[in-house]
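Record passed on here:
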Amino acid sequence: MENERGTVRSARAGVTGAPADRARLPRSRRPAGESALPGSSSPWILMYHSVAVEKEDPYRLTVSPERFAEQIAWLHRRGRRGVSVRELIRARARGQDDKLVGLTFDDGYADFARYAVPILQAYGFTATAYVVADLLGQDNGWDIEGPRKKLLTVDEVTELAAAGWEIGSHGLGHRALPGLPAEVLAVQTRQSRLLLEEVVGGPVTGFCYPYGAVDAPAAAAVREAGYDYACAIAHSPLTGLYALPRCYVGDRDGAWRLRAKKGRHRLRDAVTGLKRERARTERRP
C-alpha cells in the first residue's frame, strides 16, 4: 500500500474528495501564449532544485551550500535582489523590476528549508518553492538514477508559507503534462492547487511544469485552473505569462557562467520575440 504519511491527502482529509469539475476557481482572461508582462522581454528567473551535499548527482540537480552562498553573494554584489516569481511579476507590472531576479526551487526538496532559506534570509532575498502536492513528506521517486532526497513535509510547507515564502504547485505526482487528456490536465492543475491552498491557508497562484515540459493544452489548463502564471524552462512559441523561461543553475556555475547565462537569456528572448513577430506578420492578410 502506498505510504501517504505526511502528504497533503492524509493531513487534509476530505479535500481530495471534491471532483475536479466541482472546483470553482477564478479563470484568467489572458491567452496562454500572451506576452508575459508589459515590455518585450521576459524577466530573468533562475531555476534551482536541491541545495545539499551529494556524492552522486547524475541529473546535476544539486548545488552545494557553499556554491549556493557564492552565487547569492554574486547577485548581491551586482546590485540584484532575489525574489519570488510572485513578487517579480507584481514589481514588473509596476515597472519596478530592474534590479530583481526571480529565484525558483523545483520539486520541494526538504533541503530548501535547511540550507537555502538561511542563506537567502541573510541577504534579504525571497524565493518560490514549487512542491508536488501528493508527495509531501516522501521523496523524489521519479528520479530513477539519482539519490533519494526527502521532500518538504506538510508542516514545513505550512511554516514556510506563514513566513512569507511563496509556495507554488508542481502538479500532483511530478507527472509531465504534455499529451495528457483534458480531464487529467484539469486534475493535475486544479486539484494540486486546492490541496496546497488548504496547506498554506491562502491562495496558490503559481504553477511550475514538471520537467519544464509544456504544450498549448497544458498551458491552457493552467490558465483555466486560475493560476496567475506558470514557469517552464526553455524559450518557445508559448513563452509568456503561462510559460515563463528560466535559467538552469548548477554547482559548476560561478560568476562568469552566471554572466554568460544572463546574456544567453537576453539573446534567446530577442530571438523568440523576432520569431513571434515574423509569425504575426505572416498571418496578416
